[in-house]
Amino acid sequence: VDSWERVNRQPVLINLILNKNISKAGEKDKLTYSINYGTVSKAVSKFAEDSICDSIEALAEGIAKICVNKCHAPRVTVRVEKPRALLHAASAGVEIIRTKEDYDHVDSNLNTQPNYINSHQDLIFIKDLRLSAIIGVNPWECEEKQTVILNLTIYSIPNVSSSQNDNVTKPHNY
Q1: How far apart are CA 58 and CA 79, in angstroms?
Q2: Where does the source fall among the domains of life (predicted)?
Q3: Is residue 41 within a helix (H) or strand (E), and if so which, with residue range?
Q4: Ordered per-residue pLDDT tens for the chain, 174 residues
């Protein structure tokens, strides 16, 4: 959904941090004990390009499932940023952290609800929100507005369920 509440494909920036102990790969000199970033990149790109998600939270959750279930990352941080989310901000987005434990009872089906053990670490953010405001108490200070730039980080309330089809914690309207 774009800034005017219309369904429209938009560019997104996806940033992943995959945590995995790769010491076994070094000891045994076998790449099979590490993560193939080419495979991760292709799988995430394909999911992002081919999927139609009702929210940015659903996109992040789907990417996290791919990284944990198909790419075998025990822990992943997914940050999805929409540069065109808000008219007066550089971008808005979500960041979630998921682990293998979040999906222990979940099969590879992307529509199954995870356990959300780590959802207390989820956040939404707004970068460089530009506002014009009167700042000051003296008369000469109140003559012209000044630009104020805000960066907001809002932590989600854990285990808030949604009635939407995406099966993610409640989406937020930026």
Answers
A1: 12
A2: Eukaryota
A3: helix 37-50
A4: 666 777 778 899 999 999 988 888 888 888 788 888 899 999 999 999 998 888 899 999 999 999 999 998 999 999 999 998 888 999 999 999 999 988 886 655 555 555 566 667 899 999 999 999 998 888 888 889 999 999 999 987 654 444 344 444 556 777
Angle (CA) 13 18 21, round 5°: 165
DSSP secondary structure letter of residue 166? T
124 closest CA partner among 91, 100, 163: 91
Kind plus residue range of the DSSP H or E element containing 81:
strand 75-82
Asked whether the CA dihedral 85, 86, 87, 88 is positive or negative, the reply is negative
For the record, the structure tokens of 69 come out as 């279930």
- Cα separation of 30 and 22, whole Å? 10
Helix (H) / strand (E) element for 163: namely: none
Contact 34, 26 (CB under 8 A): no
**Whole-prediction pTM:** 0.79
